[in-house]
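Complex 318.
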Amino acid sequence: MGTKEAEAELQLQGQADIWKYMFSFADTMAVKCAVELRIPDIINMHVEPITLSQIVAGIPDAHSPDISYLARIMRLLVRRKIFAAHQTSEGGETKYGLTHSSRWLLHDSKMTLAPMLIMEDHPCLMAPWHCFGQCVKEGGIAFEKAHGRMIWDYASVNPEFNKLFNDGMACTSKIVMNTFVSEYKDGLGSVASLVDVGGGTGTAIAEIVKSNPHIKGINFDLPHVVSTAPIYDGVTHVGAIPKETGKVIIVDVVLQPEGNAIFDDTGIAFDLLMIAHVSGGKERTELEWKKVLEEGGFPRYNIIKIPALPSIIEAFPK
Ligand SMILES: C[S@@+](CC[C@H](N)C(=O)[O-])C[C@H]1O[C@@H](n2cnc3c(N)ncnc32)[C@H](O)[C@@H]1O
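Predicted structure with S-adenosylmethionine bound:
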């Protein structure tokens, strides 16, 4: 290929990339629609792949459904491997089944990302993403620019948002803790009491205590969050870290900006999420964690990689 043709090809690819990024949100909205309509649950209930009419028949309150819209949304979702399309016979109706991705979107499953997806893609939490330019130009907090107050204040006066947020966090915690308790057995053996700082409604500490009944669990969060938290055996509130024997166990992303592991891209997106939703929050590279921990009086640390988005960071006081 000559230089001119190669340049033209690169230009065309560049244009195609921009079209793709311009409409990346279409994937998000299509998945959100499927979760809102509980399509994964409807398919799961039937056990076997089902037709569009069967899907529509299972959608609650669909009084005058438009199946052609659903067909077009499903076409994209099949392309993205969220659902699998099965052609039963030549010219026969397509049937839709679950995939490894949509199994994570079942509402009534112990391990689900559905509440997190509904939360993150809610207009209220999407609005701050539109304020990034403003943040770069003048600093400040994206959520506050979009909603006039910080996220935790907003949640404290808006019970519906408080529930949306806490439910999203709780389902994510359950997934991460499932991996955490099996991958960090040794680290938990010697722990007598454990404080989850900013532990939300206590899902994480409850999961830890359930499989480690020797641990006294303490869930620490804001009053409007704790007041809606379920009661868990072995979990109470407030605590402190003993100087000599204590450690801080952090379960958070360790960014690998150049990395190619399966969660590395999502880690970078989570860092932007921190700009969008919280004040001063960020995801950190190992070097940044080291600095924060040293400044906080925890000069020794281990990073334990687990098969999950976050890693385990054990930090020990001087
Ligand atoms: C990103 S959420 C994490 C929730 C939980 N750790 C989880 O992973 O599911 C951050 C939590 O910090 C809590 N929080 C924010 N500021 C706080 C403060 N000053 N004191 C205690 N908790 C706080 C929020 O209410 C929220 O539940």
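Residues 159-183 form the longest helix (25 residues).
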